[in-house]
Amino acid sequence: MAKLSPPKIISYKKDGRKIVMLTAYDYPGAKLLDEAGVDILLVGDSLGNVVQGKSTTLPVTLDEVIYHAEMVARAATQALVAVDLPFPYCQLGPQEALRAGARILKETLADAVKVEGGANRAATIAALTDAGIPVLGHCGLRPQEIRQTGGYHLQRERELLFQDITAVEQAGAFGIVLECLEPELAKEATQAVSIPTIGIGAGPHTDGQVLVFHDLLGYIPNRTKVPKHVKQYADLRSIITGAVQQYADDVRSGMYFKE
Ligand code: KIV
Asked: Of 29, 35, 74, 162, which is least surrounded by CB within 10 A?
């Protein structure tokens, strides 16, 4: 099967085929997701939270994103690989975003970048797409702006959302992540654009869904707060701690080398 391209992802919306997207940060994880038939692998700046153990995505650097994206892109034979433009490259304006986006595509061989923001990032998205760098938009809750917006809240501003998604579509994005929206608002937004919407905490009516790899699989330390919208499909924490405790018991008791 050929690798998924932005036009193919757009055609999924026309065909009524839901888009499956997950974050990925390393070679084995990406390989498993690619083999499982995930459509889009996102090297999200959420790596700051789930890989680096930080409290926000803001400290993640361009070099760190490139380091992870190279592994993911090398693993993906079918999935489209999108990579977050980390803070503050979406915010610095078209020239800086273009420089960062070009580095990402050139050094990682990923397929696209993701840009957080709406109408305020239209010029940046247009500059990237004009240069042949496919862009996935990201509207609704924007984790890179939480210092300004005051936290991870449900987004209710209807007018602003519609201005944003329209601007992002017109600027040439091939899809839009919609984060933390009332399901009915996400439904209306999905109907208002011809490119696919991919929801996270935005209800069932978007054209696809995205989740963070670690949240989906329960690959999270004890007492880590998982967002309310997350549906967890496995409990890797228990599996890993159980296996490691078994190994430790075997080593300590001398059983490790016995059959
Ligand atoms: O960084 C990320 O993982 C994201 C997704 C949660 C959409 O932006």
From this structure: 35
Domain ranges within the chain, ordered by starting residue: 6-253
Q: Are 180 and 152 in contact (CB under 8 A)?
A: yes
0.90 cut: is pTM over it?
Answer: yes
Residue nearest to atom 8 of ligand 1 (CA): 44
Return averaged pLDDT per consecutive 10 residues of the chain, 259 residues in all.
95 98 98 98 98 96 98 98 98 98 98 98 98 98 91 87 98 98 97 98 98 97 88 97 98 92
* Closest C-alpha among 72, 3, 8 to residue 42: 72
Active-site residue identified among 70, 179, 182, 188: 179
Confirm or reject: Cβ of 176 under 6 Å from ligand 1. Answer: no
Q: Which CATH superfamily is domain 6-253 in?
A: Phosphoenolpyruvate-binding domains (3.20.20.60)
**What is the residue with the minimal CA distance to atom 2 of ligand 1?**
44
| Ligand 1 binding pocket includes 46 (Cβ within 6 Å) | yes
Substitution candidate for ligand 1 out of 135, 179, 181 with most atoms within 8 A of CB:
179
Place of tokens 């692998």: 41
